[in-house]
Amino acid sequence: VLVCPEGFMQYEDYCFLWNNNNGQGRTQMDSTAYCNTLVATLPYPIGDFHYWQKMIQDVTSDIDWDGDAWSGATLQSDEGWIWLDGTQVQNNAWNDGEPNGNGSCSRFEGSSGILYDSVCSDTQPTLCQ
Question: Fewer Cβ atoms within 10 Å of its own Cβ: the N or the C terminal residue of the chain?
Answer without folding.
Answer: N
